[in-house]
Amino acid sequence: MGPGLGQQAVQVAAWVGPGGRVDVLDLQQEMLDATVERAGRHGIANVVPTLADASGRLPYEDSSFDAAYLSSVLGEIPDREGTLLELRRLLRPGGRLVVAEVALDPDFIPPARLRALGEEAGLRFEGRLGPPFAYHAWFLKRGDGS
Length: 146
Description:
Helix 1 crosses helix 2. The protein is of the alpha/beta class and 146 residues long. 30% of the residues lie in helices and 29% in strands. The strands form two sheets. A four-stranded mixed sheet has the order 3-4-6-5. A hairpin with a 4-residue loop joins strand 5 (124-129) and strand 6. It folds into two domains: 1-52, no CATH class; 65-146, 3-Layer(aba) Sandwich (Rossmann fold), CATH 3.40.50. The relative contact order is 0.14. The chain contains four helices and six strands; from the N terminus they run αβαββαβαββ. The mean pLDDT is 95.
């Protein structure tokens, strides 16, 4: 969600390999085009762009993703709580959500606030890597639907 110019999305797509796919969703067609172009320059064909707003219902089926990754994006979304609930809907049981935050971002979410948001959305906090001003936090959708 919010791939920017695609640097991270293309790296993830290379890691996933041709047997998997990386869906990128953005509100701006220019960002999706840049991501797909970057993937093409690296010979990567498993990046699938979707033009959509991250607020509200996302255009994917329930339990359709193994993982979701947001890097300095969640704070830009007005309805953070709704977006996390929607991501929970999209994750398969056992799926993971990873959120990266950097304090230089004006929409930075502090770790304790992110943990509370994730848990309020029914995701289980699994851990955090990095200091409070530049970190990755990850959450799990349990197999019981939560």
